[in-house]
Amino acid sequence: MARILMVVSAADSLTMKDGTEHPTGFWAEELVTAHRLLTEAGHTVNIATPGGKKPTVDAISLDAQSAGGQDKADDFAAYLKEIEPELSAPLVLSEVSADHYNAIVLPGGHGPMADLASDANLGRLLVEADREGIIIAPFCHGPAALLSATNDTGDFAFAGRHLTVFTDEEELGGGTGDNTPWLVESTLRDAGAIVQAGPAWQPNLVRDGNLITGQNPASSEVVAREVLAALGPAPEAAQDDEADDESDEDIQ
User: Fold this and answer.
1) Does the pTM of the predicted model rise above 0.70?
2) Range of the domain at 205
3) What average pLDDT does this structure show over 162-186?
């Protein structure tokens, strides 16, 4: 089966426009939904963060109202507890090579705005993955991480690509509002991405070749299922270091 890298923010706060620190991290629904569907399909999911730091769940994402009810909040919390060993010992992002994986998945929460959007190691990884046609699947605020990727001339590597992301409307109306330090949708547009926004808070998926993006937490499942469809009967990725050299050429 395929081998999937899930890149998760290690940030636990975001500096707001007024200079205050807003507690944040990854959004529970997004990480849980993607991780569960991908592993239940039989694929291997490795979690990586900047510096190998244990990621922080955004506490708001485990609130019943934000999660869509107490049952969902409890389910997300229980799943995170189940995968606690993986979350506690993530791979060090700077030590990861794209050619070991069939797909890179990037869930959101506001965390990616604080670290992944400017992480040079992630940028290198994404450029390498895109060059090789490896699936890249960020969703909600996850597409902020794409901003880390620049080409040899220093330009945004995903300029001209079609994608979606947590919209300015959603951020201002139900995210961190007017105090948001920068708007991911507008920033991606300004960098040259072609953003295709759907109705606020409704599932929306955009696929442009190997780039699969989702708009908001409600898009978590459709993104994960599109990744599964894109993987299809992909050749088995390397299972151990000794097999890497033999299998790298088969990873698409």
Assistant:
1) yes
2) 3-245
3) 98
